[in-house]
């Protein structure tokens, strides 16, 4: 379902900056880019009130512990996350588009965000991984994301599969 929502040019610019790793000081590179709909619901734009940088996610500063505190439990958003993971011995770093549409959002907001995601995906070519979450428990569940990525390790943590 098309919503008629467009994507702001600065979203595409930030995406390109995140995609090409050599453009910035590694510590000042964005780890997570937060986006939301404009007040008139016509454009997806950067949420300048929230951002996570690589330096905020070093050592014991786990991005999956920080994300639940950075989202609003009633307002949807999109988050582009730079995820480091391993598949066997092969280390990878790829962008994952997270669609945060909480269960507690108004029905209208859920519909608008769900139908607008395609416009964002089309403007961010090469984003191969999508992750949809509707509760903070799901945001903390990096094992699920790791399984979707086929990873044996994510953000330096070995995955323990939920399958027994």
Summarize the SSE layout with pairings.
Layout: E1 6-7, H1 9-19, E2 30-37, E3 43-53, H2 63-70, E4 77-87, E5 90-100, H3 107-123, E6 129-133, H4 136-140, H5 142-149, E7 153-154, E8 157-158
Care to describe what's here?
- By secondary structure, this protein is an alpha+beta fold.
- The chain has one domain: Severin (3-Layer(aba) Sandwich), CATH 3.40.20.
- The protein is built from five helices and eight strands; from the N terminus they run βαββαββαβααββ.
- It has helices at 9-19, 63-70, 107-123, 136-140, 142-149, and strands at 6-7, 30-37, 43-53, 77-87, 90-100, 129-133, 153-154, 157-158.
- Strands 1, 2, 3, 4, 5, 6, 7 and 8 form an eight-stranded mixed beta sheet that branches.
- A hairpin with a 2-residue loop joins strand 7 (153-154) and strand 8 (157-158).
- The longest helix is centred in the last third of the chain and has 17 residues, at 107-123.
- The radius of gyration is 16 Å and the shape is globular.
- The termini are far apart.
Explain briefly what this protein structure is:
With 164 residues, the chain is an alpha+beta fold. It has helices at residues 9-19, 63-70, 107-123, 136-140, 142-149, and strands spanning 6-7, 30-37, 43-53, 77-87, 90-100, 129-133, 153-154, 157-158.
The second-level CATH architecture is 3-Layer(aba) Sandwich
Largest β sheet strand count, sense and barrel closure: 8 strands, mixed
Q: Kindly give the count of domains.
A: 1
Please count the beta strands (DSSP E, at least 2 residues each).
Answer: 8
Number of helices: 5
CATH class: Alpha Beta
Which class of secondary structure composition applies to the elements? alpha+beta
Helix fraction, binned, reads 25-40%
């Amino acid at each position: 379902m098309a919503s008629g929502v467009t994507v702001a040019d600065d979203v595409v610019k930030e995406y390109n900056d995140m995609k090409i790793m050599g453009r910035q000081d590694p510590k000042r590179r964005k780890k997570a880019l937060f986006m939301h709909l404009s007040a008139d619901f016509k454009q997806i734009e950067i949420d300048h009130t929230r951002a996570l940088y690589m330096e905020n996610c070093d050592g014991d500063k786990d991005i999956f512990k920080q994300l639940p505190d950075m989202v609003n439990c009633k307002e949807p958003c999109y988050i582009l996350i730079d995820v480091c993971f391993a598949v066997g011995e092969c280390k990878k770093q790829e962008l994952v588009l997270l669609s945060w549409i909480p269960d507690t959002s108004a029905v209208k907001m859920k519909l608008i965000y769900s139908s607008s995601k395609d416009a964002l995906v089309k403007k961010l070519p090469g984003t191969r991984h999508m992750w949809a979450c509707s509760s903070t428990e799901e945001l903390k569940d990096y094992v699920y994301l790791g399984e979707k990525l086929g990873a044996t390790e994510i953000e330096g943590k070995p995955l323990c599969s939920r399958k027994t």
